[in-house]
Fold:
Amino acid sequence: MERLRGDFPQLEIVHFSNYEGIEEQVREAEIVIAWSLRPEQIKQAKKLRWIHSPAAAVHQLMFPELIHSDLILTNAREVHGPVVAEHVIALIFALAKRLPQAARLQEQRKWGQRIMWESLPRPREVSEATVGLVGVGSIGREAAKRATAIGMQVVAVRENPGKPKPEGVETVYSVAEIEQLLSRSDYVVLAVPTTPQTRGLMNADRLCKMKADAYLINVGRGPLVNEPDLIHALQQKQIGGAALDVFEHEPLPADSPLWGLENVFITPHTASLTEKLWERHYAQISENLRRYLAHQPMLEVVDKEKGY
Structure:
């Protein structure tokens, strides 16, 4: 906040560490930077012109009061995309080399070479494996570049398959053809926004279309996956396993069966967290502030009708 005040002395900038008491300030604000607002707060904010979400996902803001307004909505998809893509590649290596299993064996002081070899799926090579990207927005595009660089084949599903193929993507399927991607992929990566069309995207039927030794990686949002269906598939070992950074309810409840499954690797919604995160946020926010004040086109504007 101090940097913003120094760079934009013409603005009055108010900072809250939580949402307590925010209503009065929102009513007078022209710009709000926040993870979310409630519909009634939008209605009361007569001076509001622009909302910026520091998250990539904006489904929490997709209510009629905002969708049908003249408010500009921007998000941080380009801030998070490259960093989350790194996390995707880290998870692929961790799953391929069975690193979570090795960590559990270390905790038990157990030399588990034979255990790791004899348990399925066995440790494998990443080169020439196929990664299926469900979504090729900022995360998907960056993941495709990195996956190709380490010798992986990349296929993808996107809403408009007729657009030019992103760098590194061999084949693009339509949403209706997602089962073809699932049947080809050794690693299925969910990186689409949460919309009414994508909620519960990975359900029992689609999980059955994955290879028996394939892994599901979710770095998008928890609602993309039907959690009870995934838990059942993992318990029955219908797929090789899953690496999950996001969940339907966060923090993940202590009584969730996911905690106890050996074929699940959990990271606590940390895919986008790095020591440079807020520096990256500052660069985007300050640039958009300059553009807003100069009445220039802004970066990362959300299509409110599409929800991303």
